[in-house]
Design goal:
heterodimer, A: 118 residues, Rieske Iron-sulfur Protein, 3-stranded antiparallel β-sheet, 6% helix, B: 366 residues, alpha/beta, TIM Barrel, 8-stranded parallel β-sheet, 37% helix
């Protein structure tokens, strides 16, 4: 497993979402609730660039005609078809069997690192 | 314990011979309106050279087809081995919700239900009735459901499929709440699309021919099924069942796949949905066979049924005595045995709780 320095922590904290390329792989980095996350930038549906998606909250499951807002800034919505993914788990909100491909990510001092098997 | 039913006909039309049959069940204040106006608002369709009823279904006394309970038993129920016939009235009766006068419609619903019990359900245990309600006045509809829910031979609520508000919307929820409470499915039947207080049968306007109108009826059913699921009706009323009579079946895979696809993208606009839309359809919507779809290769129909789980939610219907009725011995031949048995009786048996066939009855005059 190789450790790649991919971003300055401060930059990711400010942008909350950014794309990096590591060894030929496009990776979308996210910063949510004090933690970094790294996912393959291709949406598992039709390969849209996830880093172009909107980071937002959503309406949580609720009763009929009830509205509960939550997951503020914890959801990335695919820029094409709107599939919502929980940034903390990578799981699609409508079908949790579908996930963004995740990579191990580490913070080390002022930098963010991604660990890859290549 | 008797045997299980082998054939349940989920759409049998029982008609008046003369509209004056309703007078004994209707308050005097509505008599003139019934006799001089009747159901005129919801009757006039485009011309059909075939006519709307089977020409061989005229009773021996020369009355209207499907107006004589004894002749219906002799002509349709007994020869076809039908264990139960779910009587649905006629499309114009179903369409009382579209009449211009809602108070008249409420009175008609009450009268029709009494007429159903007195003239039909008392004749044979094979007859099961549908409770007419006026959906333009949901409170009155609830009262009518409460009035008849305890009757052992009233097995569902019936309304027309033509409507100004899609069936998932909150306007109808009191009706569904009452139906669910009493374990009664709500069925809808086509025939008044574009008539009375409704919109054109297509969003783009009126077809010009009866054939064209008939072809496109499923469009309305697709809209209602879509609405029922997306509005969260089946989350709000988890035991509620909806029966889409005579609205076709083969559109179901398309609608399911389209709904599921969009749910994956637009889930947050219907956050009450906890499962894929197609799963609600499979658990809550029933459909009927007639008019059976007739692809060039009958096997295509079997394949479509398999695609959407239709074998567990589709029920046989003849539509007797309408012109486009299906013969139970002919219409189900494309289906393999196990699928055929579910469609012929088992699905309806479970939905309506008709687990035991009635004892064979003599048909008087047969």
């Amino acid at each position: 497993m190789n450790r790649y320095k991919v971003a300055a922590l401060k930059e990711l904290q400010e942008k909350r979402c950014m794309k990096v390329n590591v060894s030929g792989i496009d990776i979308a980095l996210f910063y949510v609730d004090g933690k970094c996350y790294a996912y393959n930038d291709r949406c598992p549906h039709e390969a849209a660039p996830m880093h172009k998606g909107v980071v937002c909250g959503t309406r949580l499951p609720a009763g009929t005609y009830e509205y509960v807002y939550g997951m503020e800034d914890q959801v990335v919505r695919c820029p094409w078809h709107g599939w919502e993914f929980d940034i903390k788990t990578g799981k699609h909100l409508a079908n949790t069997d579908v996930k963004l491909r995740s990579y191990r990510v580490e913070e080390d001092g002022e930098d963010v690192y991604v660990l890859l098997n290549r | 314990m008797g045997r299980e039913p082998k054939l349940i006909d989920c759409d049998v039309h029982n008609s008046f011979n003369d509209i004056s049959e309703l007078l004994p069940f209707l308050p005097k204040v509505w008599h003139q309106q019934l006799l001089e106006h009747g159901f005129t608002d919801v009757i006039n369709k485009a011309f059909s050279p075939v006519g709307l009823v089977r020409r061989d279904a005229v009773p021996p006394n020369g009355g209207r087809p499907a107006s004589d309970p004894q002749f219906m038993l002799e002509h349709h129920i007994e020869p076809n081995g039908i264990d139960y016939a779910i009587l649905t009235g006629t499309p114009y009766m179903n369409a009382l919700s579209l009449l211009y006068d809602p108070d008249y419609a409420n009175a008609l619903a009450s009268a029709l239900n009494e007429w159903m019990v007195e003239k039909w359900l008392k004749v044979s245990p094979k007859f099961k009735g549908s409770i007419h309600v006026n959906f333009s006045d949901p409170q009155a509809a609830v009262k009518e459901i409460e009035r008849w829910a305890g009757h052992p031979d009233m097995v569902q609520v019936i309304m027309c499929s033509s409507a100004k508000i899609p069936f998932g919307q909150r306007h109808y929820h009191p009706i569904y709440e009452a139906a669910e409470h009493h374990g009664l499915p709500v069925a809808v039947h086509p025939g008044a699309e574009g008539l009375g207080q409704s919109y054109p049968p297509t969003p783009s306007g009126y077809p010009t021919r009866f054939m064209e109108w008939e072809n496109i009826l499923p469009l309305n059913f697709m809209g209602h099924v879509n609405s029922l699921v997306c509005e969260g009706v089946f989350e709000k009323f988890p035991k509620f069942k909806f029966v889409a009579i005579e609205g076709g079946v083969s559109w179901l895979p398309h609608l399911m796949w389209r709904m599921d696809k969009n749910y994956k993208a637009l889930r947050d606009s219907a956050p009450w949905l906890k499962r894929l839309p197609s799963e609600y359809i499979k658990d809550h919507i029933y459909l009927t066979t007639q008019p059976i779809e007739e692809p060039p290769n009958p096997e295509y129909l079997v394949q479509i049924y398999k695609m959407c789980g239709a074998e567990d939610i589709v029920m046989f219907s003849s539509d007797y005595a309408h012109w486009d009725n299906d013969d139970p011995k002919m219409a189900l031949t494309p289906f393999p045995k196990e699928m055929r048995e579910k469609i012929a009786a088992k699905n309806a048996m479970k939905l309506y709780g008709l687990y035991e066939a009635p004892e064979q009855t003599e048909v008087s005059g047969a």
